[in-house]
Design a protein that fits this description.
With 150 residues, the chain is mostly helical. It has a domain of 50 residues. Helix content is 43%, strand content 0%.
């Protein structure tokens, strides 16, 4: 027999057994039945009457003990790192220059040549300062082992 004919035969058996009664009518084996102690209790439900909203049953859906037991409280995040004055000035220059130009253009202010030059120079200077301060080397606390260096 070829593998194709085996596969066709399996499909014929599946199709032929499609209308046969299920094994769902057969009882469970006793080894798979749960004892009453192992069965989960049904959750408590509240019933709300549409005609009388003030007569709502105030039974909680989940016990307060269970709610506190599974509640996760994360630890507070670490504080943000301290930023030195040069980095703060660079960020202010990076965003301050274009912000000034945008406000001046939208307000219709007459921009002098020196103000325009200062705003553009602040943007370029702030960008350059941040790029230069980024650094290119490994962190100082990397230790003696630099990993795989090729």
């Amino acid at each position: 027999m070829t593998p194709q004919s085996d596969e066709d035969e399996v499909w014929r058996q599946i199709v032929a057994s499609y209308n046969e009664p299920d094994s769902a009518d057969q009882p469970w084996p006793d080894s798979e039945n749960l004892s009453p102690a192992e069965q989960e209790p049904e959750p408590t439900r509240r019933v709300i009457k549409a005609s009388e909203p003030e007569d709502v049953d105030e039974t909680p859906l989940v016990d307060e003990e269970e709610e506190e037991e599974g509640h996760f409280v994360p630890e507070p995040p670490p504080p943000l790192p301290k930023v030195d004055l040069a980095t703060k000035v660079a960020w202010v220059a990076l965003f301050g220059g274009p912000a000034y130009l945008l406000v001046a253009a939208m307000s219709g202010w007459d921009m002098q040549g020196w103000a325009l030059f200062t705003a553009v120079a602040a943007f370029i200077g702030g960008f350059v300062a941040l790029v230069v301060r980024m650094g290119d080397g490994p962190p100082n606390d990397s230790g003696w082992d630099d990993g795989a260096v090729i």
